[in-house]
Amino acid sequence: MSKKKDSTKPVVAVFGGSGYTGRFVIAELLSRKMKPIAIARNAKALSAANFPQSEVFLRQATVDDATSLDRALHGAQVNNQALGNLEEEYDERRHQPVRDRIRYTSAPKRI
Questions:
Q1: Is the pTM of this model over 0.85?
Q2: DSSP E strands, the chain
Q3: Quick check: 47 pLDDT over 90?
Q4: Which domains are assigned to the chain?
């Protein structure tokens, strides 16, 4: 009896998606045929990132607003934070994806 491999790729939320590290994370996800959700505080920065709109969901949220985080994480199976220097601030909301049973990962800090 053979098991059929699930070819579904996860939807990955990237906090800091419009920033330096976040853009690299999103580019890597796209190269792996995954569906990223770029999340940033500033909607204009998301728009200026020029992500292919048919391939990347764009969502605005702030770490201190649980409602906006809930909306931004909707549909995600994995959460990656690429916030760089804001990591300490983000620590307060790290529980949010865990509460929603979303896997959490972190991009390495920039040097």
A1: no
A2: 11-15, 35-40, 57-60, 78-81, 103-106
A3: yes
A4: 21-106 (3.40.50)
